[in-house]
Known about the structure:
By secondary structure, the protein is an all-alpha fold. The chain has helices at about 5-10, 15-45, 50-75, 75-80, 80-100, 105-130, 135-160, 165-185, 210-235, 245-265, 275-290, 295-310, 315-320, 325, 330-360, 360-365, 365-385.
Amino acid sequence: MFSLNRFLDVKKEDQSLLYFTYYAFLCSGMMTTVLGAILPSLSEEYGLSYTLQGSLLSFHQIGNLAAVYIAGFLPYAIGRKMSTLLGASGIILGLVFMTLYGNPFFLIFAFLLTGIGRGTMSNMTNVVVGQSAGNKAGGLNLLHACFAVGAFVSPLIAIAAGDSMWRVPGWIISGLMLIALILLGTSRLSSERSRKEKGGETRFLKSIGFWLNTMIMFFYLCAEASLTGWLVTYFIDSGIFPQSIATSMQSILWVMILFGRLICASISNRMNKASLILVLGIIMTAFFTVMVNASGPVAAVIGVFGVGVSMSGIYPTTLSTMPADYNSSTVATGTCIAVATVGAILMPLVIGTVAESAGIASGITLIALALICMLALMTIKLVLTLKGRDLS
């Protein structure tokens, strides 16, 4: 009989913390996609331009960038538990704040807070799974599958609430995130200040493998952040789907991501991971091309299906190929995710700026440039791996 604990190779004393971590990352996934789901209604009510919408998505990623890096060092000062609770509370505050006022500066602050919460959760959850699960590739793919579950559910909540009740999903997710923080607060997540290893905090900066993996994730996040942030708006403004169906397409995207991550979790220990990453990247690029060139709903749906399944395992599988001591380090993990997140900051803003002058279709096609760069780095990674190069 299948046993999740045996599959993950997790010690009994770490099981509850691991499952609380999975739930918390699920809530983080809900927050991430609800922003894109409610952005059209929020923008209509507050009268926001494409440029300002892109700026909000970018400030969310700026908060994410700041948090994943700060969260790498903050545990040394106040402990992992306190730093997690403080940073992740930004999800709750940001979602509530953006439902109160439409002032652009207030909205920027609210989106910034949600990014801080997301970045904090990303750093903590990846480190906890990296430390607790013996099967790191399986554990990280399952962690990001939980994120995908949350990302799938929240647009459905937005659809059920309706355009005029777009604030309700934010309030619901805030409540669920509060429960997650209570669970983590009562867990065995370390309250002690982390101890630094002399000379070990920055060794990863000289690692070829560290930077190769980080830049793959950089270009991947260019694409992911742009797709999750702009997909609904793209389908509505291009006339391919009405708003309700366009919003549901975001959920379909994350259903496919969930499906793909479960597949990657099951095969990651039976296949060369560098080969798996490159195959996923090629398929993602091909189906993205189908999606943006679709003139009707059928081709668009096929493109979304293929993009979702193929993009699913790129991030967690790439992260799992880092040396074990980097995966268990909040500094190395924070630096990796922080640098990668710069891509998620820049791309949505660039797309919004281009869309303002040339239309959303022209803006969204820029994602292809990021995918081409990602494929080039994936190819280099595979070649070096097959040649037996030490990438640590």
